[in-house]
Amino acid sequence: MASAAVEILGLGLGILGWVGVILACGLPMWQVSAFIDVNIVVAQTIWEGLWMNCVVQSTGQMQCKVYDSILALPAEVQAGRALTVIVALLGLVALMVTVVGAQCTNCIRPGKMKSRIVIAGGAIYILCGVLVLVPLCWFANIVISDFYDPTVPPSKKREMGAALYIGWAATALLLFGGCLICCCSCSQRDESSFPVKYSAPRRPTSNGDYDKKNYV
């Protein structure tokens, strides 16, 4: 019963992480303007994401524009698009696999195969966390390097946006949820793998008494 609760908890964390990845993928706040000039009053704020960039005016108006060319985008943006979309699809596969093999469902009869399916779902969640971590760290490294690079003009410097932090939180949820699913499934399989030994029944002899070797 406890392992089933841990499995449901891991599945819930994995779903939250998957939703977080989709949210981070769609948000245009992977990089935001860095206000490092002496003049604090600025007319606009620039947001840059995987699919579009937005300009937010001081009056509250926001204008967004989808990138025109895919091939003209930087390598980190193209890789971020590909990996986040792959993670979104793999997260759906992990959800279906885990639900099929979960202890609270009857899609498959209990046994080793059911445990292996759940472990496969947890492994896919862990893989999703590792894959989505690549573009997040890549973007963060570029932002930090450009920020401290004296050759980059102040108007081109950027800071890490909210989408990166959401992505890191989603990564932690995916990794932790996948580990919980795998651990509880492995422990359940180990507990159910002990062989059951049966002793042969004692047979009476011809005179109606039990054989003496049954008492040795």
From TrEMBL:
Listed A to Z, the keywords are: Cell junction, Cell membrane, Membrane, Tight junction, Transmembrane, Transmembrane helix
Under the heading Gene3D superfamilies, the entry gives: 1.20.140.150
Is Cell cycle a UniProt keyword of this protein? no
Q: What does the record say about its membrane topology?
A: Multi-pass membrane protein
Q: List locations, semicolon-separated.
A: Cell junction, Tight junction; Cell membrane
Quick check: keyword DNA damage in the entry? no
| Region described as Disordered: spans on this chain | 194-216
Determine the domain of life of the protein's source.
Answer: Eukaryota
Give any Gene Ontology cellular component: bicellular tight junction
Q: What GO MF annotations does this protein's record show?
A: structural molecule activity
InterPro entries per the record? Claudin (IPR006187), Claudin5 (IPR003551), Claudin_CS (IPR017974), PMP22/EMP/MP20/Claudin (IPR004031)
The residues that cross the membrane are: 7-30, 82-105, 117-144, 164-184
Q: What family classification does the UniProt entry report for this protein?
A: Belongs to the claudin family.
Relate the protein's function as given in its record.
Answer: Claudins function as major constituents of the tight junction complexes that regulate the permeability of epithelia.
Q: What is this protein called?
A: Claudin
- Can you name the source organism? Grallaria varia
Q: Which gene encodes it?
A: Cldn5
